[in-house]
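User: Predict the complex with D-serine.
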Amino acid sequence: MGSLLQKLEAAVKRHNDFYKNSLPLIASENLTCSMTRKYYLSDLGHRYAEGKVGERFYQGCDAIDEIEQLAIDLTKKLFKAEHANVQPISGVVANIAAFFALTKPFDTIMALSVPCGGHISHDRFSAAGIRGLKVEYYPFNSEEMEIDVDETRKIALKLKPRVFVLGSSLILFPQPVKELAEVAAEIDAKVLYDGSHVLGLIAGGEFQDPLREGADVVTASTHKTFFGPQRAIILSKKELADEIDRAVFPGVVSNHHLNTLAALVVSLAEMLEFGKAYASQVVKNARKLAEKLYELGFKVVGESKGFTSSHQVAVDVREFGGGARVAKSLEGINVVLNKNLMPWDDVSSSSDPSGIRIGVQEVTRLGMKEGEMEEIAEIIHARIVKGEGESLKQRVIELKRKFNTIKYTFEEEEAYVWEE
Ligand code: DSN
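Assistant: Here is the predicted structure with D-serine placed in the model:
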């Protein structure tokens, strides 16, 4: 048993050391401050609080009620939402709940295909499939990286989908929430916006505000451009509150992970205080990175619209052997990002797609600005185009050494603490 635990300890330490010396550019991840992490370890992580605030099935939930009410109140305030459910334990769980609230089995929904950026849970082989939904993909213009609204309207008037799903995993630009909310009104459908990727940008006022543009429901995980633990929220119009709450509990959660619920409160407070400055820097950084990569000769997607309005940059790397090869090669010099399907790819090529996706939200949280984005672009170029090796890894380690402190928080602190 001793050696097994030593092995575990060594693996966790190795992981921690790797991240300390790497550039984390996965678009769906972020860091939490120590005040957030403190609550992970609290006794809350041993408890259940089935039901709603003030209507629990177990005793011992007085303080938990207070914590959950704080999370609800701050979420409603931050997103100016009529209703907030803070119980889903992940983005996929939130999406399953939303589908249960808004549809019946065999209904049709419209969503982005995975190559066009849609999240797997919007598709028939995942959450939408669990609900037994038929999924019709939006017609998509890959030059402009946007949904073709006119064609969508024609299809929708014929197929009468119950839900238009918006928001995606590859999301460079705002999406047509207002336009599809108008189509939805014609056929009595709903708009569900999955804001997982851009939640922090919405909170900071740097991206479209789906509720104001007409979305009925917003689901979102809380740990991508947001500063929270790995869990999720659902925002909705008041008239959908009961359906959403019932779909979450008893629908898809029993235990709703009370330790990370408390941690979520800290991240909501951080976002209220620092969200605007953070989100603005994230978008500036993403644009600068895209521009520099383009200047260095890379095929950066979304050129006609200025490459990006979010935290993400997408690059077509087919000329360098494709996304799998490029992502693996960058990992070799401690640059961590992911291969990504592009709109022209077939979903069957997901193990070796055309592109890579880069997210700057985590390095921005560590204080990087436009100058560092230029350096990151140069590092990627030196590795992928010039084939440089070990010396580049040292350059990455040197660069990262200057950015190991968590910013946009109440007390700035070391990011990669691991006590052995
Ligand atoms: N897999 C995540 C992403 O990278 O977009 C979302 O769940």
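The mean pLDDT is 97.
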